[in-house]
Design brief:
2 strands, two-stranded antiparallel sheet
Length: 474
């Protein structure tokens, strides 16, 4: 009994998140139709979980008979999930009220999706990993189609569900084959037995299917087809959440399996990851240039950033992994802020979602235009912002691992990305026009976006803090 109590306390962030979800569920049942208290409880609960996660970043251990891990690596990702959740809750309240679709169910789904994400990051067993993926995915399917009276939202939810279910088949079959070859679902045991398993056809097939399943979750080429339509049709603040926290959770699963469990350094598996990374960078940045919708542009940008992060994973070195973890934290802040501003400017009937709608924005909304420019500069990788150091770390790791060609592709495609990121800045500041933004951003939402912008700047000026912390996990 004492050991289970200790395990529960060690996994405090997960328990606090689940308790928050249950509380929001009960409050929503009691006060149906008045979602204000639900948003407050969700935000406060996730903030407390974030504090709990930040208190144990230096040590790691196993819980629940080796099925989960706590502290360190898991808590690092939990910080990303919970902070992203808090910002999403704050931004969503004003946004959903303006869209006339403020429902308490949204906050319930966000909290339980984060619980699934924490399970993925904490998993030390294939079953726990799968449970986390499914809990997260089911919540995100519903969030994507939340505004069910809008055709695009229905299309978003349906496409995400159908393609997500299809990818889950690959993922589950891959887990089954890995279990069949190893005789266990425990990742520690599989890691210890890896030298005798790595070349077995059944095991390799399972690894390949796992790579397909997680490539879908991170929206990497050629499994990215769902991202543009889902990102465009989902509620904008939810899109920011899916493109940051959900992507970070998927990468947590990738690192857990392909780095912390499987050791394919110098093998064909890592070459395949490098090819997927290169294809994602090339296609994502090339197609983003042609987009006229801001959300679709950032969707293809998200595909490209998945390629950047996979560049760090392809080598399998500690430098690449720490660089990838830094990039995930930086990308979460940059993209969440960008989608937050889009949500603050968006009007009903999908107004203010085209690039041309931002023409002359700096004259009408100077603060929001300045923040949006900051996020665009960071996403483009302009120093000294966080995006620059994220790309620097993953590209340097690729070079050290012998993937110099991959780093060259990354640098060249980053130059391409500067065009469509800076195009938005040019429209806001250097084109004549009057952006039609009748809404006045709420104080809480503005503070949240400013806080995210400060994180982007601080991570860029002081990158060593996260890098040194991440080095302890490997």
């Amino acid at each position: 009994m004492d050991s289970y109590l200790t395990d529960i306390l060690n996994n405090g962030p997960l328990m606090l998140t689940v308790i928050t979800g249950i509380l929001v569920l009960l409050v929503e049942a009691a006060r149906s139709g008045r979602p204000g208290p639900s948003s407050v409880i969700a935000g406060l609960g996730l903030a407390v979980a974030a504090v709990a996660a930040g208190m144990n970043l230096m040590t790691e251990g196993e819980s629940f008979n080796g099925m989960a891990r706590h502290g360190g690596y898991a808590n690092f990702f939990t910080l990303i999930f919970t902070i992203s959740g808090v910002v999403t809750v704050v931004l969503s309240r004003d946004y959903l009220v303006r869209m006339n679709w403020h429902r308490g169910e949204f906050y319930i789904l966000v909290v339980f999706a984060i619980a699934g994400m924490i399970l993925i990051a904490s998993a030390n067993d294939l079953i726990v990993l799968f449970l986390g993926v499914e809990l997260m995915s089911v919540c995100l399917y519903v969030i994507a189609g939340l505004m069910r009276l809008k055709d695009r939202s229905n299309e978003s939810g349906l496409k995400y569900f159908l393609l997500g279910a299809f990818s889950t088949g690959f993922l589950l079959y891959g887990l089954a084959l890995v279990y069949g070859a190893s005789g266990t679902t425990n990742l520690t045991v599989i890691r210890d037995a890896f030298p005798s398993l790595h070349a077995q056809p059944v095991f390799l097939t399972g690894v390949g299917l796992l790579l397909v399943g997680f490539s879908f979750k991170v929206a990497a080429v050629p499994f990215h087809m769902w991202a543009p339509d889902v990102y465009e049709g989902a509620p904008t603040t939810a899109t920011g959440f899916m493109s940051t926290a959900a992507k970070a959770a998927a990468f947590a699963g990738v690192v857990t399996l392909f780095i912390r469990t499987f050791d394919y350094v110098g093998a064909a598996v890592n070459d395949v990851i490098a090819i997927i990374a290169a294809a994602s960078m090339i296609l994502g940045n090339s197609v983003a240039i042609a987009q006229t919708n801001v959300k679709r542009m950032l969707a293809y940008s998200s595909v490209a950033h998945a390629g950047y992060m996979l560049s760090g994973i392809a080598g399998g070195t500690h430098d690449g992994l720490t660089g990838t973890l830094y990039y995930l934290a930086a990308y979460a802040a940059m993209n969440l802020g960008a989608f937050g501003i889009i949500g603050m400017l968006e009007g009903r009937e999908d107004r203010n979602l085209l690039l041309d709608d931002y023409t002359g924005l700096s004259k009408q909304q100077p603060l929001l235009a300045g923040l949006m420019a900051l996020f665009m500069f960071a996403l483009a990788g302009i120093p000294p912002l966080a995006g620059f150091f994220g790309k620097y770390y993953v590209f340097m790791a690729a070079v050290k691992s012998g993937f110099t060609w991959l780093a060259i592709i990354g640098v060249l495609t980053s130059l391409v990305s500067a065009y469509y990121y800076l195009r938005l800045v040019v429209l806001m500041y250097f084109r004549e026009g009057t952006a039609d933004v009748p809404v006045r951003p709420g104080a809480a939402a503005t503070i949240a976006v400013v806080a995210v912008a400060l994180i982007v700047v601080i991570l860029g000026l002081l990158p060593s803090g996260i890098v040194e912390t991440a080095q302890r996990f490997f």
